[in-house]
Amino acid sequence: MASTLEYTKLTFPLNTGDKIPAVGLGTWQSKPGEVREAVKVALQRGYRHIDTALAYGNEKEVGMGIKDSGVPREEIWITTKLDNTWHHVVEEGITSSLKSLDVDYVDLYLMHWPSSTDPDDKKKHLPDWNFVKTWAEMQKLPESGRVKNIGVSNFAIKNLEILLNDESCKTVPAVNQIELHPNNPSPKLVTYCKMKGIHPTAYSCLGSTDSPLYKNKDLIELAEKKGKTVQQVLLMWGLQRETSVIPKSVTASRIEKNFELDGWELSDDEMNKISAMPERFKVCGDAWLPVKVFFGDDE
Ligand SMILES: NC(=O)c1ccc[n+]([C@@H]2O[C@H](COP(=O)([O-])OP(=O)(O)OC[C@H]3O[C@@H](n4cnc5c(N)ncnc54)[C@H](OP(=O)(O)O)[C@@H]3O)[C@@H](O)[C@H]2O)c1
């Protein structure tokens, strides 16, 4: 890959013909009072992709940050997600998100988890419902123009197979947003998604809050050798694997640093060394859900 490549302007093609910006700003755990400014700073710095979710409780402030930035709506890629307790009311879910964000459409609407949780008792799965039925409802959304692309999140190969093999599945998800970092690289899942024409987006791409990766001696050494930060190296590893990355920060200086990704790259040897890191940890488990969604093989 040419070292002159501008990763901050790079997009990845989706199976719909659309193009998702390779670098976005994550907003999970970005609190009200912080996230509006973070979104504004990011967009003014050049980010063109913002990732939020109904479950994050910050869509309203994300929308305000987008307006504050002065960047035209059509230049920005907005992803939001259908919450688990809204699976049976997809229309209401997207209507709520659009209202909170104060936009007419989102670029990508994801099923946040393959878990149709009972809103009255979050320990229970909804009776007579499942993620295949949720997807059947989501497939209707692009017709309205209120959603440009639909996708999934936290789908393991096993659940993707169930979805794709169901006769009701007419639209292959454009994206699967999954946890990906060197300690949870999921090579089989990434390869499977690409083979099926599903673009993988890497969440917790830095290892999330209090990331152990920031203290990893090999990564620190590599970053120092390259004159980069550990976070920049982690993002570049994700980008060179052809996954989009959505680092979260509410700190202006970090938001800026995380976007300094142009004109350099990791060598094949450096990529391989990072990919071969033996440590394993996962930020997001499934113990809090009424159903298992990770099966311990490659996620
Ligand atoms: N689909 C899903 O189920 C799912 C699950 C998890 C995450 N996500 C999405 O993926 C996004 C990213 O994942 P994440 O929020 O788990 O974590 P992340 O982006 O891997 O890491 C965020 C953490 O790293 C810190 N940080 C960021 N840049 C830094 C830098 N340059 N130097 C030092 N520290 C830095 C942040 O601190 P400060 O903010 O304090 O600066 C924050 O504590 C989320 O925000 C969300 O949009 C989706």
TrEMBL record:
Keywords for this protein: Cytoplasm, Oxidoreductase
Coiled coil: none
Record: residues binding substrate: 112
Pfam families: Aldo_ket_red (PF00248)
Keyword Oxidoreductase: yes
GO biological process assignments: alcohol metabolic process; arabinose catabolic process; cellular response to stress; D-xylose catabolic process; ketone metabolic process
Main location: cytoplasm
Domain of life: Eukaryota
A GO molecular-function annotation: aldose reductase (NADPH) activity
Keyword Oxidoreductase: yes
Domain NADP-dependent oxidoreductase: 23-276
Family (UniProt): Belongs to the aldo/keto reductase family.
The name this protein goes by in its record: Putative glycerol dehydrogenase Gcy1
Native source organism of the sequence: Aulographum hederae CBS 113979
